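Fill-in record for Ribosomal RNA small subunit methyltransferase J.
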Amino acid sequence: MIVTTGGRYNEITLQKAKDIAGRYELEFIMRKKRSVKELKERYDDDILVVGNDELSISTISNDGSVKYHPNFSMVRAKRLLNNEHDALVEAAELKAGMSFLDCTMGLGADSVIAAMTVGPAGQVTALEHSFILYLLTKEGLVSYNANNDSINRAMRSVEALYVNHEEYLKRLPDNSFDIVYFDPMFGEEISNSQSLRTITSVTDTETLSEIAIEEAKRVASKKVVLKDHFRSSRFEQFGFKQQIRKTSKVHYGVISTNVQVD
């Protein structure tokens, strides 16, 4: 992957682009008024564009670009601040001080909601096996300004890791997180979900395995939670109790582990 700046940039943005390239051991290239398409053709590689206010990646296999944006999580976050309900929080029974392992980070929306709920005394770790999404989301979480201190603090508190979730789960001790969470790519399209359509081309295609679920049940001291399309066979396949939401195509499934830890 090549790192460059937006077409118009300032010294702060230039340094930020160079810093990102250095941290991830990527090559930095000056833009020199060239288009992203020209850069992809010249270097035959994906291009990370660091703009003044946003990050985006244009892949070699796709003409479009994937931008970091917290999307609907901002609406959900503001609802939480107004003491309104959130489906994930209710399904996982998340509370302040709890630990939450997001095995399928994506653009990090659910991790941000979890971080807001568990607060500074809690812990949110998010795993992503697509390097493109990992880099985009990790950098977005530390730099995006939501214009709200509570949301910004939650975003900064998420620990993002570039790793395969099954392998990571195998290395964890028993009962090391209260909640283990999966939000795999849906088998059926949610037509009004722009964020899902946007990231499909760069998302790792690994699916949930029986091994991952068994490891999750060992690691989670309270619950394993699955978010999926309401018609998904994975709820029954892996033994999740599906929570019916009549007004939504997205349902949650729960496996209660109910381990009491002294």
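KEY FINDING: Confidence is low (pLDDT under 50) at residues 186-198.
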